[in-house]
Design goal:
Beta-Lactamase, alpha+beta
Length: about 475
């Protein structure tokens, strides 16, 4: 019983059933209308014939004493030719007493008192149509009643009912087969989508629907599915690269630590050598610590758990605090930091994340700017947007690296670090990726312009609010 309750018929079967039911309702309503209209027209034709017969009869009514009679018929026997064999005619008194009758039928209604107008009556199971009209001749009032049997009308309507009763089921059966065939053909692309989706695994995301049909609802569904697969493949590829790069970055300092420890333990050392070894190991541990912290930060940022409550932050105060933090590092290299902050608006966002965003960019600028160089931070606003630009006079970046700068673990050639003598401050390729994700989480964007030997400019675009 539970299986029957949980059974869901295929969609093509449901579409066919709904189509047949809908068509059946339309055909039924149409048949009722056709039947009613046919009956109405046939009754109207019968009424018209009764009118003609009545008109011919009335001109033959005459007075005879205190009653009316068809006296003129004796002088003109052809007056009702063609009528008396189709109709039954009564001439009755106002109280329904019969005076005269033309034609006879044992199954016809008897003469009776009827008001003027059309009437329908059953007599011995047969249907009759009666037209009664009051007539006055020489002050004598009577009623002429013309009767016509509707057996022909009944038989025609019965035949119509039978034809409808046969035509509708036949039409529904044919429509059901046709609807099922068309629904199956229309849903074939969806079956192909289903089969393709079932064959796709995390290890093989290269397959696509590649729907060759028109850009209809199914075509758009297939394109949407292919687009989703593209995004999934990009996400999987990104995660694979991220995992591989993270493992590589972790393996390098761990291998260095293990090698240094092995060399140190290979023979006795004096205190100075042990101190030097421990200092070198401390640098590797610091690098591991920075890497693990950055990895954890990126993971939490991806999950959206780092972004706290948004608050209005004055641009000038935010950038001033960041510059004050980075200024000692710049002073150690005799690098000038120039502030050009003209924006008076506020940024609505997470203070801690925004500080980290601009600290990462300023730290990169100072790191890759030679001694005696210059780092310029400026903030302007236009059309409700805050534009914060951080420009340096450093080594610059080749054009082929620019599209990949914000990818995780992407690093420009190591010669940039070696040329600046920063053996201990080389990054792991997550700083700009973190900056990009923080900017994106605040609904903004980040761009870069750079030329080798001419420095770089990173610009953050965020929505601003007037103070």
């Amino acid at each position: 019983m539970s299986r029957l309750k949980s059974y869901q018929p295929p969609i093509r079967l449901r579409l066919t059933v709904w189509y047949v039911l809908f068509l059946g309702a339309i055909l039924l309503l149409f048949s009722v209308y056709v039947y009613w209209q046919t009956q109405r027209n046939m009754i109207a034709q019968a009424d018209h014939a009764l009118e003609l017969a009545l008109a011919q009869t009335l001109i033959n009514v005459d007075r005879e004493g205190d009653r009316l009679t068809f006296k003129n018929l004796a002088n003109n026997p052809d007056a009702l030719r063609g009528i008396d064999d189709k109709f039954l005619i009564y001439l009755v008194a106002p109280d329904g007493t019969p005076w005269e009758q033309i034609g006879s039928d044992n199954h016809a209604p008897q003469p009776q008192k009827l008001p003027s107008g059309y009437h329908s009556q059953l007599a011995d199971g047969e249907s009759w149509r009666i037209l009664s009209r009051e007539v006055t001749v020489g002050g004598v009032v009577g009623h002429v009643q013309v009767l016509q049997e509707l057996e022909a009308v009944r038989l025609a309507l019965v035949s119509l009912q039978q034809q409808i009763g046969l035509a509708i089921p036949l039409a529904l059966v044919l429509a059901g087969f046709g609807g099922f065939f068309l629904a199956t053909r229309a849903l074939n692309p969806i079956n192909r989508i289903t089969q393709t989706a079932q064959s796709i695994t995390a290890e093989d995301l290269n397959r696509r629907i590649a729907y060759p049909g028109p850009r209809d609802e199914i075509g758009r569904l297939a394109q949407t599915f292919d687009g989703m697969l593209d995004r999934l493949q990009q996400a999987f590829d990104r995660e694979r690269r991220f995992t591989g790069d993270a493992a590589h970055e972790l393996r390098t300092p761990l291998a260095a630590l293990k090698g240094r420890i092995g060399v140190t333990l290979s023979q006795p050392r004096d205190n100075e050598q042990y101190v030097a070894t421990l200092q070198s190991m401390e640098e590797q541990v610091d690098r591991l610590s920075r890497l693990s912290n950055d990895l954890l930060f990126m993971a939490r940022l991806d999950q959206g758990v780092l972004k706290g409550e948004s608050e209005p932050i004055q641009v000038a105060d935010l950038l001033g605090a960041v510059v004050d933090t980075i200024r000692p590092l710049a002073a150690a290299k005799s690098i000038r930091i120039i502030e050009q902050i003209s924006a008076t608006s506020t940024i609505v966002g997470d203070m801690d994340l925004l500080i980290r965003l601009f600290l990462n960019l300023l730290d990169n600028a100072v790191k890759y700017t030679p001694a005696e160089g210059e780092v310029r931070i400026s903030a302007s606003e236009s059309n409700g947007q805050i534009h914060v630009a951080i420009a340096d006079t450093g080594l610059g970046i080749a054009a082929d690296h620019l599209p990949h700068l914000f990818e995780r673990f992407y690093r420009v050639e190591k010669s940039r670090v070696r040329r600046l003598g920063q053996n201990g401050r080389g990054g792991v390729g997550l700083g700009l990726a973190i900056a990009h994700e923080i900017t994106r989480s605040h609904g903004g964007s980040i761009s870069v312009q750079s030329q080798p030997e001419h420095g770089s400019t990173f610009t953050v675009h965020l929505s601003g609010t007037k103070i």
